[in-house]
Design brief:
- The structure holds two protein chains of two kinds.
- Chain A contains eight helices and two strands.
- By secondary structure, chain A is an all-alpha fold.
- A two-stranded antiparallel sheet of chain A has the order 1-2.
- Chain B is globular.
- Chain B is mainly α.
- The longest helix of chain B has 25 residues.
- Chain B has a two-stranded antiparallel sheet with strand order 1-2.
- Classes of the chains: A mainly alpha, B mainly alpha.
- The interface between A and B is medium-sized, with 37 and 33 residues.
Chain lengths: ~210, ~210
Amino acid sequence: MMGRGRKPRRVEKGERAAGARVLRVGHVKQKKGLNIFMAGLNVGHGLGLVASGATLLHQARASSPAGIRRPTYTCPPQLQHGIQKRRENPRKIAAEVHNYMLYPLWSVLTTGHRRIEEGQYYEAHQQLRVVSQRYIKAGDYNSAIEILSSGAQALLKAGQSSSGGDLCLLLVDVYRTAKLAPDAISKGGCCAMMLYRRVANSGQHGWLNLSP
Amino acid sequence: MMPSEEPSRKRFINEAIAWTSKFGEFPAGDPELHHFAGNLYAQGTETSQKRYCYAKLKSTVLLEDEVYEAEKHLILGTRDSADVLARMLYDWYKEDPEVHTAPTYIARAVLAYLLIGNLRDANRSLDLFVQQLMQDNPSLTVQEVQSASADVRIFPSLPLLNFLSLLRLGVQTGGQDVFRNLKSHYATQLRDVPWDDVGLPSAPFCALS
């Protein structure tokens, strides 16, 4: 089994790892890549709000607007450095296409988030809409829910209530199409959306903003 | 909150509840979701209250629409919803300069809970409201009537509040004739309030017996 494919490799006595770090005998060297990426995806809906009953409200309250983070999906290893530069370099663009095939959800989410950060709300909204529809047609409801909930949260956080609200409605549509029974995670997703909506609205019109 | 934002937000909440009622175990929608939505509406009134106080834009501090929406969800909510509802109705009542209107506010919770046969939350919300009322108005005269089965607080100045307390006792113990007696006894006061619209005539008794 030595050196074949993705299997973890047992280090022999006296062997030095590629990174010049001496590994102890019996230390299992893990190959980074797809497995870790897949594990990173199962974080529930965006924030991973898993709660029930009264704790639902409490937890949702505890995650203040400052606590809203970009989802921490593991990105493909060759892109971990220099994400900014890859757009100019044709070889890196090829790599992006390659990544789109290997890590579709990751690329959609990061592209969407980048657009939202750059202020291209309309483009981000349309892209997330179209891509989620594609996933729904393919029957991959989990990915669609992931895209919609994380995109809607980002849009609402940016104060784009109408496009964020549109994605929220799509999300409930997916719940219906998937015939998803309401459980702690899906209900928590809904509650989070309502809360973000409120935060987004009150952020737009602060206490001292005199416009009615 | 922006009025133009209201429709899509309300639509999202309604859609989510429609989804839980279709695929969940509760035909009226998931209680936790109802509780959460009602809480949000009730809090929304709080923030707008503060905002308007600071900006001195309006003299009315509670937005009626939000109170009605909150009420609609809290009635179908969880065990904790009764507290939120009673507190919200009390805040709403406090804006009213006239003391004797208190019963019309809490009746919105008590009658609605009785209509859906939820005696526990009807009691809870009424108790909480009366407790707060007595705290804020120490000068209010109270007569404690104690019997073997139940204690009732009677406020001579608030006949409709007495009607509500006796009604919930009657629902627990008596039948239709208790209710008819009660109604004829308070007939003059009941004429002033539109409670017949909410199905007061006999619905609480039908629901429970």
